[in-house]
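Input sequence (303 aa), recorded before submission:
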Amino acid sequence: MTRYVLFRFIAFFITLLAIMMVMYFALRYAIDAFWVGSPFGDYLRMSWAGFKAYLDGVMHGNWGTYDGEPVWDVLHDRIILTLKYNLISFAIYLPVGIGIGIIAGLYPRSIFDKLVTVYNAVMGSIPLYIIMFLLVIYLGVFWRIWFFKYVGHYGIRNYPIPLIALTLYPIAQLNRVIRSELIESDTEQYLELALIKGMTRRRAKLRHSLRNSMTSVVPMIPEVFLYTLTGSFMVELIYRIPGVAQMFFDSMFALGPFDVWYPSIQIAMVMAIVVFYSVLSLGMNMITDVLIMVIDPRIRLAE
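Predicted structure, token format:
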């Protein structure tokens, strides 16, 4: 177990370094192709030299500046706001999705189960940005239940529409998996043995099948979390939330004459945002792998 965790930490930093290098070269290529157009060999040499200088600065705590201020000072409040939306939505869709899946799995072919199946099909076929637009139009504009965009002094009233958009699909994904696992467990020998011993089917499923079902749900958590993390980009832009997504857009494009957007890449800021999202995603995957081993000791991922 300890050796596996150590291996995951090493892989974490190697993967993060590779992401940083690929992203830096891609950004430099975008700048070079749009503004300079130098030969490819010159671009590679300049990019490699720039990346080494950038990495040296990072190792010494210098991540660069944005409008004369350190990038992390600029990002601090925006990161907190983005994390609030993502963590609150995570705290909603994880228990709700698992709870709905358990109920539907315990009572298959019931009215509740059929409604859940329809909900899953609908949520799996509508893109997030469409859901967000519909929520803004109907809840914010037509019905005026909540405001149609982020307003700083509105406080908690800024949260319902984005949180609804961020939780609908994850709830469908989680309950679909755990429902399927519980229904499929009806044919398992351990469940039949529990029934022979006198346990009710519902109690047997809750006591034996649920734990086995979690081994399929836990690996989905990073996937669903990354969905909301990347989906929050669209949600923040549509709802005009002053979070990381808006800063990413501002550091990639600028408004020029005649209201035309043109590339204006701020490498230091874009790299900091990429590192922020990469650390979250890689960390979530590492934690999930460890949790799988705790839930089911038979799994030996380190081998």
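Checked by second reader. The first strand starts at residue 65 and ends at 66.
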